[in-house]
UniProtKB/TrEMBL annotation:
It is a multi-pass membrane protein. One of its GO terms (molecular function) is metal ion binding. This is COX15 protein. The lineage of its organism: Eukaryota, Metazoa, Chordata, Craniata, Vertebrata. It catalyses: Fe(II)-heme o + 2 A + H2O = Fe(II)-heme a + 2 AH2. The gene is Cox15. The keyword Membrane applies. Pfam families: COX15-CtaA (PF02628). One of its GO terms (biological process) is heme A biosynthetic process.
Amino acid sequence: FNSLNHDMTLAEFKFIWYMEYSHRMWGRVVGLAYILPAAYFWHRGWLSRPLKGCVLMLCGLVCFQGLLGWYMVKSGLEEKPNSYDIPRVSQYRLAAHLGSALVLYSASLWTGLTLLLPRHKLPETHQLLRLRQYAHGTTALIFITALSGAFVAGLDAGLVYNSFPKMGDHWIPDDLLAFSPMLRNIFENPTTVQFDHRILGIASFTAVTALYLFSKKIPLPRRSRMAVTSLLAVACMQ
């Protein structure tokens, strides 16, 4: 209010306050949904030794995620008397908060599916090993792309150029490497951050398409085939 939104009304403040409040409450509900059943199952002796380690890791990740959220919000409330920038949270902390959420979600889904669905006993052919390696590489690329999106959001980089595939009148904008040292551009230059996110997004979509086409050459179980097809569908929608 003091730095930017001098004309904000109480109703407008309540709107953003309730968004933040709802997000915090929902996060706490998620934490309880992990910790309370985990404590009950542990007490009843329903967890195997490997699963106990997995449950401890997931509950620890839930707590760490909440701590990172507090640390991120704190960065947006710090006074910066010598700065004329728009008040915002640190893009580094935002990326860390999003990244830990993705790790938590993926680990939860993997653990749940491992318990619910028996693992297919497939022959370890050369093609299947290549497909698995390629799937892991595609996963890493998608994860990096999502993290780059957090930098776009943190810097409001999406507002810099709103044309596609060119950025304004250029394929490569003039201010791509305007910051010094050069490495700062990747994380702090809004133009570079948006450019990188576009390149990573196109690369991720290409990788998913290639994964799908490669999987068509391999006889896969129905469940695996559905997973690869669903991945391509979600990539198109995204």
